[in-house]
Amino acid sequence: MGILDSKIPKGPLAEKWTKHKNTINLVNPANKRNIDVIVVGTGLAGGSAAATMAELGYNVKTFCYQDSPRRAHSIAAQGGINAAKNYQGDGDSNYRLFYDTVKGGDYRSREGNVYRLAEVSGNIIDQCVAQGVPFAREYGGLLDNRSFGGVLVSRTFYAKGQTGQQLLLGAYSAMNRQINRGKIQPFNRHEMLDIVIVDGKARGIIARNLITGEIERHSAHAVVIASGGYGNVFFLSTNAMGSNVTASWKIHKKGAYFANPCYTQIHPTCIPVSGDHQSKLTLMSESLRNDGRIWVPKKKEDAESLRAGKLKPTEIKEEDRDYYLERRYPAFGNLVPRDVASRAAKERCDAGYGVNRTGEAVFLDFGSAFMRYGREEANTQHLDNPSEEKIKELGKAVVEAKYGNLFQMYEKIVDQNPYETPMMIYPAVHYTMGGIWVDYNLETTIPGCFAAGEANFSDHGANRLGASALMQGLADGYFVLPYTIGNYLSQDISTGNISTETAEFEAAEKEVRARLEKLINTKGTKSVDNFHKRLGKIMWNKVGMSRNAPNLKEAISEIQALREEFWNDVKIPGTANEKNSELEKAGRVADFLELGELFAKDALHREESCGGHFREEYQTEEGEALRDDENFMYVAAWEYTGQPADAVLHKEQLEYENIQVKTRSYK
């Protein structure tokens, strides 16, 4: 077991990033044009990194499996992006954003990285406004803010319920400018299937053209992995169907340590599962918790009547409703962090108070918001003695202006009008805080290989606060990686072009072809989805919202058996040398079947509860997470040595010099 060097600069917290930028090595503009960089993934992290590095003068190749970078899963982020601008004048600051993020992550993230994230957050907003991102504005003309879970200020900038889409279009427009200049060479509908290591350094990738099936070699002086998270290991998640762990897993198997895989976020505000026919889940933005109140009936008989269809939610009187988050966490109420809200919803449903047919749903009710906003609007319009109906009508119009597209999406999926009856929600897998281990420079344990955005582990600890994913992705891409990658590339100014006609590229391509042929030639009897769904059920039932040692041990054995069955009985039609979507899925599921075991292994080894990792053996009398700071205040970084069962643990000890470590409380 080794000790990892995070390379966090010395000195006062608020000066670390500035000092680091002033002292790292640079590449002059004349040399940048002779250096090539590969970026895998073109969502917010990859797209912003590619555009910025190309603007600096590097030659960039981008790879994405979608038909356009505009289709990256970043487009699905709805609620907003955090930044410490303090436009509301409510006491926000870089330090408060830093503190909230570390506390929200249950004291399992790096101080240095998180403070840097807070420090550059304001620059992100300026950058995006300059690109034309249509953030909402308040009456005075300043950008509007709303609140998200785990904080006591309003710092979330938003564009209705389409924030991710609008930010991605900004990054995509910046990319297009560089594509037009010839500085970015885009390879859409391409999937990275391996990384190429030459003399110990990342020097390129092997990719498959998903239209023709052709295997291609691409060289570069550095490789950036920005391919997102691995939530689809659960099969049902809020992630796009194509989201996968393959790029991260391939570099893991070539030497990049995988950190904290068990830190996975369960989002409390998702449309509930309706049956086995589903292939994904839909997120209802956390922004809805600004105005929606979460409740279940106080009486079990009312819950039973709701499930049987004998009672409508609007027929349950106010005094018979249990607003359980407001009851349990009065200081934060409905805006507690996601892990806290998710476990609370599960506890109520497990106790028999679930409100839908399956018993796994709670209500998100906007009735109070309609009346509150309606009264404000009536006062603004100087209406005398408006009726209750008129007030409600005015309030609905305000809510529609803030969240209208989300309400439309809910009605299309559930076939219920959320303006007339409360939404039903339940927790679902959403985001992965774990990922590839990187140092302060975002460099992995493979020299020359970097990881950005959700693909790395660095900023969120054991739980991500809402609206911080977009912040981290754009911080990494626009403001961190373009600086730090130069420190590495400054040693490559005399290297010249990297040839793909070498033994290392030949071996990597041969390995990729052999794996694809093995999949195609299995000629089994079960579909890829059959294995993926079975893996997902193991993960959700035994490695999901709550975990215990017996279940985790069973999960590891079951995943090992399922993986062996997969390689002996998966059925993939067609050939490898053509467009073949089943072959694409098979490769991704094969990687999930390895990651799933490491995920469970990591959860089993971490004998504490923190953030999104909840071990049933380690909880307070009130059912809250019980950390073990004495024994587990470290990053668990796993080294691949042949099989997930044989992964070797490396520890990066976490030190808190600027923040007091204490039990999280949102009461």
From TrEMBL:
Alphabetical list of Pfam families matching this protein: FAD_binding_2, Succ_DH_flav_C
Gene3D superfamilies xref list: FAD/NAD(P)-binding domain, Fumarate reductase/succinate dehydrogenase flavoprotein-like, C-terminal domain, Succinate dehydrogenase/fumarate reductase flavoprotein, catalytic domain
UniProt entry keywords in alphabetical sequence: Flavoprotein, Oxidoreductase
Residues of the Fumarate reductase/succinate dehydrogenase flavoprotein-like C-terminal domain: 532-666
Cofactor: FAD
Residue span, FAD-dependent oxidoreductase 2 FAD-binding domain: 36-470
SUPFAM superfamilies (alphabetical): FAD/NAD(P)-binding domain, Succinate dehydrogenase/fumarate reductase flavoprotein C-terminal domain, Succinate dehydrogenase/fumarate reductase flavoprotein, catalytic domain
The protein's name: Fumarate reductase/succinate dehydrogenase flavoprotein subunit
Entry superkingdom: Bacteria
